[in-house]
Structures are given as C-alpha cells and as structure tokens.
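Whiteboard transcription, Tuesday session. T.W. wrote the structure tokens on the left side:
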C-alpha cells in the first residue's frame, strides 16, 4: 500500500506533540540562545535546531512590501517516546529570561508508546494518583473543652514518643521489688524483649544506591543532629544494600535501623563489622515487600551501580541488582518468623528489636497473627500502596497494593480482639504527607492504631525539593538521571545537591512535625502518651469509609 501524498513512512510513525505528556513552551522573543536549557535536560527532550523563515518587510520613504528568507536558531522539542519531556522544569531553573517551561498535557497518550523492547515500562517515584487520599479526608473532631494551660499546644511539655519493640504485659515481666527498686528476677527465666523509645515518625528504607551519596549523607547528619542536639530520638532505616563501613563502626549506628532484604546486598560488610560495632543499631528490619510493588523484590538498575555502590554491595559494576521476591530457602511466613527473626536476634545477642516489613495486602493479617505468637518479633511494618520506590513496573505502581488506612485499621483491631494491642507495635507507611500534611497524616494513622509512621518520598520532597509528583512529573529515580541529584550516582548530577542543606532541612521538618503533633494532640486532652488507637477522635465525611475504619461519620 502506497503512503499518502506528502507523508513518508518514516514520518508516519513519529509522535505528534499531542501524544506527549508534557509540552515545552518556548518564547523566541525572550530566548538569548545561551544553551543552558538543552545542556541540563536529563532526558534530552529538547535540542537546538534551525528553521528557515520567510520574513516580510517594508522600508524606504515609499514602502514597498518585500520578503526574504533567513535562518533562525530555535529550541525544539524531540518527538520521541524514549526522550519525552518529564516535566521536571530544570530548564526553567537555569533559563535567565524565563523563556522556557514545560506544561502538562492532559490529553497525552504516552503510555501507549512506553512498553517497548518486550519489557514493561519502569519508573521511579510514586503512583500517578492526584486525588485526595483517605488520610487527608480524616478530621480530628474529639476536642477537650478543658482550659488547663498544661494542655495548650504552645506551652505543655508533652514528650511525643513511641516504643519500638515487643512490650510484655506487666504480669509477664520478670521483675521484683527489692528495697523499693525494681530489679530483674533471674530465677523467673523470662526473656525480656529489647525496646527502644523513638520519635513516632521515622525515615523509611531508602538505600545507599537508591539515594545519591550527598542525599544519604545529609539525611544521616540530620538524624544525628536531631538525636544529639535537639533531643528528638528520630531513627532512619538503611534500606537494602548495606551501609558505609565507617558508619557501621561508629557510635551513630544506634540511630539507624539496618535492613536485610532478599538480595542480602551489603551484608558481607555488615557481618564483618559485627565484632567492631561500638553501638547496637536501633533495630533490624527484614524486608519481605514494599507497597509500591507488592510481591516483587527490590531492584537497583545498572545505571546506578557505579564504583561506590558496587564496593559497598560487593557486586560488579553496571549490572542490574534484582532481589528475589522471597527470601531464599524460606517458603512461608511461618518459616521466616522461625528462622530469620530468631537468627537476627541471635546475631546481636537478643539486644536489638527485629521486625519484618511487608507490603499492604489482604494477607497482612495472616502475617500479623503469626508474629503475635512469636516472642522474638518486635513489630510489624506495613507499607501501603502509595509508597514510593526507586524502580518498579508502572503497572505495579498504579494498579497493585492496598491503601494503608484500612489495612492498618484491620490489623490493629485484630490485635485488639487478641488483647495484644499494647504488645506488638505497628509501623505504617505509604503516602504519608502526600499533600504536605505530614503531622496530620501521622496523627491520623496513630489514632487508627500505628505506633510509628514511616516516611520516604515526603522527606525527599521537603529536604531536597524533589520534582516528582502524582502527574508522572520527573519520576526518573530508576534511571540515574535525577536532575536534582537525589537519586543518582553520577557525580555530575549529585554535585548539585548540598548535603549540609539536606541535613538542615531534615532537622527543620522533624522539629516542625513535633510541634504540630502537639498542636493536634493537646486539644484532644492528650498530655502524657500517644493516642494510639484512639479512633473515637476521628471523623470522615464518607459513610462507607467511616464504617470501614470504624470511626464516626461527620458532614
């Protein structure tokens, strides 16, 4: 079949601007052709070009219209699905004259062109869902009418703290009173689980490798400052991939939760450092799943496995590091509880809390019930569907998983029915602070039953101004081309990020969250402890959601 007149077969298979998710708005009259925008574009979605223009002019005392052709230099958008604009607006940041900016195209069809090469489209970031989440619809409606100044949010001395670790009922504690003091009764022969007092908001698992060196270093410095200067016991999970050897042997290790996942990356270095550790870690997290890609293992793509990362993880450079979906040799959660949790507890002499992290699914309660019967299980971390990731299939990000609010609530009520709601802490994650309301979202999850709330994407956006959003903006975390320098191992890119500023912003985020949590809890009459499970203080404007969560309906 012959092509239509004026259309070549090559051009007929190109995209038009209407298919692209972001359109580049370029102002010819403002552009001074400096080339900065084309130089910094992480995906090379724009490039310099030339055009031939026909210009009409009229000169002289008796103007007579004339025309001439001239060549002009322009900035053009590339019509290629592999190099489509991701809307990061780095070009706008460097343009001296505000001559260029991306604009969201609501009529785009880009996903039709993304699944090339026989593999599903992968991306980083968080699911594309700009709607208001359940957490942001919850309101705090049980307000105390007391006027006691001690309950005033600006003045009271309520220490916002939570406990991480298995908490035994008083009657099971092997304690006895001697001369007015409580001491451990060695004859009781009862194991006392290790417990840590921590701030109820923690930084979730983001590995050395997923994050750039200055980003991870900045978060680590911020955590150390919060603990040692501000007195806020904030902890941070390492993510899969090990930790810097110097940190493993330092006194700052006590502020970090070491994660072990199914790929066991970096664990050779951790095992070798065990005899030299001057402090125990805050906890050990065993990752079985994450909310962004339930049922999948971790993935660090080859573009990010450079010299530093290959050294820490003990692998070759420039290879995909894919973790299996399950821990090898362990084929059920029962076996995992019996082997993994107990073996990690033994490695640290039963001094460190050990808990699993799972993705939010309908099977979360089955995992919880097995943990509730195991005396060595310190907690359960549940990662809801809105959790972010460094690399996942788009279909997993957008179509798989369970919302954290209802998943957490049903697990907490399950513990209530067993009478163990104050014994096994629940850690909730996934979409916390999605619209910027960190303290409000955290408080809502605590009142639904969480003892600790975990954040990841929020701290990236607040501490390092991540460009990503729920309109598929940027989300280049998996490619190693992060224009902010947050999720890249390329020195040319991560030198844009200042670790000191990241640390400063991290401190500011947690100090403000501490103040805002007091502002929420004080008017509710809480001045001594966290209102874990105090669901009568919550309301929502949707009857079905109110019934599902077991809270009041208010409109």
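and on the right, the sequence the group agreed on:
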């Amino acid at each position: 079949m012959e092509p239509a007149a004026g259309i070549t077969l090559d051009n007929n298979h190109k995209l038009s601007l209407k298919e692209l998710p972001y359109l580049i708005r370029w102002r010819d009259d403002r552009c001074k052709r400096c080339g900065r925008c084309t130089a910094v574009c992480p995906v090379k979605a724009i490039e310099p070009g030339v055009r031939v223009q026909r210009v009409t002019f009229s000169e002289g005392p008796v103007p007579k219209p004339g025309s001439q052709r001239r060549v002009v230099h322009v900035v053009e958008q590339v019509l290629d699905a592999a190099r489509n604009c991701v809307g990061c607006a780095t070009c706008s940041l460097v343009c001296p004259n505000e001559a260029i900016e991306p604009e969201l195209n609501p009529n785009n069809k880009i996903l039709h062109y993304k699944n090339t090469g026989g593999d599903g489209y992968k991306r980083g970031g968080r699911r594309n869902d700009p709607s208001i989440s359940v957490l942001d619809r919850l309101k705090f409606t049980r307000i105390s009418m007391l006027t006691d100044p001690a309950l005033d949010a600006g003045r009271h001395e309520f220490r916002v703290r939570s406990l991480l670790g298995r908490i035994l009922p008083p009657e099971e504690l092997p304690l006895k009173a001697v001369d007015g003091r409580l001491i451990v009764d060695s004859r009781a022969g009862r194991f006392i689980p290790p417990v840590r007092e921590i701030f109820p908001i923690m930084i979730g698992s983001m590995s050395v490798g997923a994050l750039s060196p200055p980003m991870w270093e900045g978060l680590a410095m911020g955590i150390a400052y919060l603990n040692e200067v501000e007195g806020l016991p904030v902890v941070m999970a390492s993510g899969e991939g090990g930790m810097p050897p110097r940190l493993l042997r330092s006194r700052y290790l006590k502020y970090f939760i070491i994660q072990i996942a199914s790929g066991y990356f970096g664990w050779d270095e951790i095992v070798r450092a065990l005899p030299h550790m001057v402090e125990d870690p805050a906890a050990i997290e065993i990752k079985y799943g994450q909310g962004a890609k339930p049922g999948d293992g971790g993935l660090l793509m080859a573009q990010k496995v450079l010299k530093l990362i290959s050294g820490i993880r003990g692998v070759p450079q420039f290879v995909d590091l894919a973790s299996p979906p399950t821990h090898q040799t362990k084929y059920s959660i029962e076996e995992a509880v019996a082997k993994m949790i107990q073996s990690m507890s033994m490695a640290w002499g039963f001094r460190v809390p050990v808990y699993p992290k799972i993705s939010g699914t309908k099977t979360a309660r089955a995992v919880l019930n097995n943990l509730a019967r195991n005396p060595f299980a310190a907690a359960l971390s549940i990662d809801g569907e809105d959790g972010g990731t460094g690399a996942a299939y788009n279909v997993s990000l957008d179509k798989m998983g369970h919302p954290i609010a209802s998943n957490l609530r049903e697990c907490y009520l399950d513990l209530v029915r067993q009478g163990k709601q104050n014994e096994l802490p629940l850690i909730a994650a996934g979409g916390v602070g999605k619209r910027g309301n960190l303290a409000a979202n955290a408080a809502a999850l605590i009142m639904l039953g969480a003892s600790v709330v975990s954040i990841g994407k929020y701290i990236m956006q607040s501490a390092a101004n991540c460009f990503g959003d729920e309109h598929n903006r940027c989300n280049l975390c998996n490619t190693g081309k992060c224009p902010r320098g947050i999720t890249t191992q390329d020195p040319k890119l991560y030198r844009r990020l200042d670790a000191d500023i990241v640390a400063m912003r991290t401190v500011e985020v947690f100090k403000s969250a501490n103040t805002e949590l007091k502002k929420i809890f004080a008017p509710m009459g809480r001045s001594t402890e966290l209102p874990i499970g105090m669901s009568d203080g919550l309301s929502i404007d949707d009857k079905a959601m109110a019934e599902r969560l077991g809270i009041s309906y208010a409109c």
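Someone added at the bottom: Residues 7 and 22 are 25 Å apart (CA to CA).
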